[in-house]
Design goal:
Pnp Oxidase, Chain A; alpha+beta; nine-stranded mixed β-sheet
């Protein structure tokens, strides 16, 4: 029996440009394993990038995904917006498999992350310094860009870099 060729192409310049556009969105869906049950869970999170381009978020310890990520840092992010017209599945979306890393309040990198986050998410000034809020960096392991019908690409961490 003949094997089908892989329909997912390696990233090219256009795929990397589409991925960079999606990485500029201010929110993402975060998939994680629930800490209590181990079952899959998903949440919408505020999204940004650290000064070095690493995907990141700012989250409250009150959110269930914090316990999930602390128990099991393997996760996935989905970025994308359906367009105003047409089938939502024809619009670009980016899935990133990642490992989450919490930034401690006394981490020397935190002040720069805080300033950078506020430059892109000014409304978070209301709560960014609350004790229950932490920055989480997502180290990409692999990514898949669906750029529309029959346009799928595998991206590496280097493809996603700023």
């Amino acid at each position: 029996m003949a094997t089908r060729p892989d329909p997912v192409a390696p990233a090219d310049a256009q795929a990397r440009a589409i991925a960079r556009d999606l990485l500029s969105l201010g929110h993402a869906a975060l998939a994680y394993a629930d800490a209590a049950t181990g079952l899959p869970a998903i949440s919408r999170i505020a999204f940004g990038r650290a000064p070095d381009g690493t995907p990141m978020t700012l989250i409250s310890a009150l959110a269930p995904h914090v316990a999930g990520l602390q128990a099991q840092p393997a996760c996935a992010l989905m970025l994308g917006e359906p367009g105003e017209k047409g089938d939502p599945l024809t619009h670009p979306r980016l899935m990133i498999r990642a490992t989450a890393r919490f930034i401690a309040p006394d981490d020397p990198a935190r002040p720069a992350l805080r300033d950078h986050w506020l430059a892109h998410h000014p409304k978070s000034k209301l709560y960014i310094d609350f004790a229950d809020f932490s920055f989480v960096l997502f180290t990409p392991q692999e990514s898949l860009l669906n750029a529309g019908f029959a346009r799928a690409y595998r991206l590496t961490a280097q493809d996603l870099a700023a």
